[in-house]
Amino acid sequence: MTIVRRGKSGKFTLYRRIPQRFAPLGLGKFYKKSLKTEDRDLAQKKADEIWRLKVGEWDARLAGESDLADDYHRRVVVIADHLGHPYMTAEEVSHEPLSAVLRRVHVIDSSSEVQADALLGGSSAPPLALSGLADEYELVMRPDNIQKSDDQKRNWRNGIDRTIEAFRDLVGNRDVMELTAADAFSYKTRLTDRLQAGEISAYTVNREMYTLNAALKRTIKNRFGKDVDLFSGLLVKDKKGKRRNRQVSFPPDWISGNLLDRSKYGRTNKEAIDVFLCMVNTPARPSELLALRGATIHLEHNVPHISIEPDGRETKTVSAERLIPLVGLSLEIFQNYPNGFPRYQGKANTWSAVMNKQLRANDLLPTPQHKATSLRHSLSDRLLNAGCTETIKDQLFGHVEDGTPYGEGIWLGTAQEWLQKAAL
């Protein structure tokens, strides 16, 4: 029978046996749905339409065409959260105490089928394999990543893909809801083996586990309404007490005797060299330099400077938003690029690959540990040796400050004086 009613004048309900072919979806034996009407003809029309849509949805899920089912389920999970109850499947709801079930029922608007699905488990998300985790996580993180530039989004996604792929190679292409704490510990063991072999640092071990845990935690919460934290308590201790090992820097005499001589760069293109040499006297990251445009380069100001701000990209931290005076060689270079660096604008990775390759090819690196960004670290050394305090240096470099910041920070003129003292 398609529709049934309680009593002679009660409202009709759709009540049908679910075809056996849908057993893999775990829907149970029967489908039941209130039609919210006492009119038999209207109830039959509503029942026929609801059943047609449900069978279509189930067939699509069996065929792997689950986009619509996914979208609806995501909506259901969000609605359940907004109504003050975590999403539960129909089976989980059935095992709740009667008082808890009634609290869910009382919240439901009697005219809203989607609220009923949200609080009584009327929608189930198709399984999610590790091979689909990166795509799903990218959707979850879309609001958080909206301020990132295209280059930043690409770097973010590449990091997620790399980490998930490494985990999948270890545990197989598993359903994310079947993963266990033992799988997480196995992944930590593999990373720890690489740490002991000297291939990676403790910081990298923790970063990989944190990245994977965040992807699993936020995606599973969004898709299935469940709280998971597989990597809880698994982070390793970094005995050095530092996020990274100390970075090497170019000695001042190496800069003067080698890097400032443009004839030593071989066939390296002029713009790549100019970006590199900007870091001689400018405490800006390459990605910050290559995000600059005419509106953030202020050469006519009484203190010529650049403005690091979220102009089409996401800054690394709030502290990274700052004004940096231009002095010496850096000022001379920017006078030739008043609108920024067109060839590499927004392409920090491309510039880095080109510059590091050319520095190696032309024997411009004192040791294998040196790289293009080591030039920026040299400015840090020169500032400290000129008597600059750590607080002022951190503000110039856009590093996160310890404690509570007070006031507006270093004045532009004062920053100019310190950079002039350290300039080459």
Model description:
This protein starts with a strand and ends with a helix. Helix content is 49%, strand content 6%. Helix 2 (67-82) crosses helix 5 (113-120), helix 6 (133-140) packs across helix 10 (202-224) and helix 8 (150-171) packs across helix 10 (202-224). The protein folds into four domains: 1-64, no CATH class; 66-126, no CATH class; 144-224, no CATH class; 252-422, hpI Integrase, Chain A (Orthogonal Bundle). The chain is elongated and about 95 Å long. It contains 18 helices and six strands. Strands 1-2-3 form a three-stranded antiparallel sheet, with helices on one face. Strands 4-5-6 form a three-stranded antiparallel sheet. 27% of the residues are buried. Mean pLDDT is 82; it is low at 241-245 and 403-407. Strand 1 and strand 2 form a beta hairpin. The protein has helices at 40-62, 67-82, 90-94, 98-107, 113-120, 133-140, 142-145, 150-171, 181-196, 202-224, 252-259, 270-278, 286-289, 328-335, 348-361, 374-385, 390-397, 412-422, and strands spanning 3-5, 12-17, 30-34, 297-298, 305-308, 322-325. The chain has 424 residues and is mainly alpha-helical.
CATH architecture of the largest domain: Orthogonal Bundle
Radius of gyration: 30 Å
CATH class of the largest domain: Mainly Alpha
Give the rounded overall mean pLDDT.
Answer: 82
Strand content: 5-15%
- Count of DSSP-assigned helices: 18
Structural class: mainly alpha
Total domain count: 4
How many strands, what sense, and barrel or not for the largest sheet? 3 strands, antiparallel
CATH fold assignment of the largest domain: hpI Integrase, Chain A
Low-pLDDT runs of 5+ residues are: 241-245, 403-407
Instruction: Name the helicity range.
Output: 40-55%
Distance between the termini: 88 Å
Strand order of the largest sheet: 1-2-3
Q: So what's the overall shape?
A: elongated
Protein name: Phage integrase family protein
InterPro entries: DNA_brk_join_enz, Integrase-like_cat_sf
Keywords: DNA recombination
Organism: Shimia sagamensis
